[in-house]
Amino acid sequence: MTDRHIAARIWPLLLVAALGLAPFTVFSNFLVDIATDAGSTDSAVGSLRGLGGVAAILVGVLCAPLIDALSRPRLIACAAAVLGVGCAISTVGSTWAWVAFCVLIGAGTAILNPAVSAQASDTFTDKGDAGRAATLVSSTMTLTAMLAAPLLAGPALWWGWRGNMVALGLAFAAGAVVFARGGGSGRAGVGVASPRTRRYPGLAAAAPLLAVSTLRTAAFMGQLAFVASLYHERFGLGPEVFAWVWSLSGLSFFLVNFGG
After folding, report:
1. Domain 3-259, CATH 1.10.10.10 — does that match?
2. Where are the transmembrane segments (predicted)?
3. SS3 breakdown of the chain: % helix, strand, coil, rounded to 5?
4. Cα distance between residue 28 and residue 34, in whole Å
5. Quick one: DSSP state of residue 126?
6. CA 81, CA 238: separation in Å to the nearest integer?
7. Which of 3-7, 18-22, 182-186 is the least confident region?
8. Long-range pairs for 178-184: beta carbons < 8 A, 24 or more residues apart
9. What is the pLDDT of residues 122-167, one digit of tens each?
10. Are 98 and 90 a contacting pair, CB within 8 Å?
């Protein structure tokens, strides 16, 4: 089966996976404006993204067994609902609203990403097609990192970053309804939580890999949190122009992910 046929089968999953990256993309690209509206500094507001990482770790560890034990379409619906609530809260614009936003977006994506990947794989019985479906989900998310910034910067010229968050909130709400009703989920995706999954027996053996992954993510997330502020301070770039800088970084990330 070709990638085109696979994508045609799982396009709702690809769409919701792409949407999952958009909230933090808006947050990072419009950090300077967001901090100004919140009456705070770029560094203070940008550092809040770390809360999203902490929430993602905690929720990911606690909820990992649920990916194989519960209905994945329902998990995707719940994650989309959490992401939608986070986007809605962000429109308040206060520092505390951004605290809640970062926590909710981190928690939501920790559930959404593995659930979408697992559901995409389970849509196909052939192992090769299943693996390619999971790769398409991952590639779609990295492609979103390239395209989302300029696509979001355009509408923001008209309605600002709050308009982007409102639009994303509505999109997540629609996605939550669709997946809660079982739509867009391919064939059934409910696994069985084994004792092996519940006890995490391989974590000690995987400690070096987990450490490298943690350091890599920490460096990458730290760069994303403050790069917009840096370019604004040094080069005077607004979010509309900076979006293209973001896209170059996303393009390289996508090409390596897809080619690998």
Report:
1. no
2. 12-32, 44-67, 74-92, 98-118, 130-153, 159-180, 200-221, 241-259
3. 85, 0, 15
4. 9
5. S
6. 31
7. 182-186
8. 178/12, 178/77, 179/12, 179/16, 179/73, 179/74, 179/76, 179/77, 179/80, 180/73, 180/74, 180/77, 182/73, 183/12, 183/73, 184/11, 184/12, 184/13, 184/16, 184/73
9. 899 888 889 889 888 988 887 776 677 667 767 777 888 899 999 9
10. yes
Match 């519940």 to its residue by tokens. 198
Pick the residue with more confidence: 191 or 56? Answer: 56
Domain residue extents for the chain: 3-259
Tokens 């990192």 — which residue?
Answer: 145
Higher confidence at residue 193 or residue 155? 155
Residues 89, 98: Cα–Cα separation, whole Å: 8
- The secondary structure element, H or E, covering residue 190 is none
Full-prediction pTM beyond 0.90? no
Q: Give CA–CA dist 75/48, Å, rounded.
A: 26
